[in-house]
Amino acid sequence: MQQQVFGGEQHSGRATRPLWTAMKRGFLCRCPNCGEGKLFRAFTKTFDHCEACGEEFHHHRADDLPAYLVIVIVGHVILGGFMGVEATSTLSMWQHLAIWAPLTIIMSLALLQPIKGAVIGLQWAYYMHGFGGEVDHIEGHPET
Ligand SMILES: [Zn+2]
Question: Out of 21, 54, 102, 130, which residue is the most buried by the measure of CB atoms under 10 Å away?
C-alpha cells in the first residue's frame, strides 16, 4: 500500500532545496542557489538577482532577524568571556573595557553580513516570501 503524505515539501510538488547548503552559501555571502554569484552589493544590501545563475534575491525578508541573532551570539561570547577572564585574572575595569568593548563592535560588524546571508539562504531553501515564484502579500510592501 502506498504511503500517504500530507503537507510539507513532499506534498508541495516542489523540489527540496538543501537547507544547510543554502545557509552555508549565504553565510559565505554567496548565492544560495549556485554558490557562485555574490549575494551582497553593500554591507547589508543584497543584489536584486544572482549575476551567475539569475536567482532572484529581492524576495528576502530578513528584516531584523540577523541583528537579533548577532546580539544573541555576540552577547553570549562577550559576556561569557568577560566573566571567565574576570574570575581568573586581576585586570582592572579599564583593562576589561579596553578588551570587551572593541571586541563587541568588531564581532558585531563581522557577523552581521554572514548571518544575514544565512537567513536569506534559509528563506530561499524554504521557498518563503516569494522565493518560490508566487507573490508575497505583505501590507505596505511595494512588491504586493
Ligand atoms: Zn546564483
Answer: 130
